[in-house]
Amino acid sequence: MKSIKKISFDECCFTEAASQFFDFDKVIKENDHNVNRFASTCPLALEDKYKDDPFLFVEYFFSIDGLAGHKKYLRKWFKKALSKDRCVTNAKDFLFFCNQFTQLMNAGYLIADRQIKYLPQRRFNNNTETFGEWLIKFQNKSILENEYYVAQYDASSLDIISRNDPYAILKKELTFRKIQKLRYGMLEWLYAAFSKQYSIEDLNKNSVFDQYESMENILEAFYLIIVETKPLQILN
Question: What pTM value is reported for the model?
Answer without folding.
Answer: 0.76
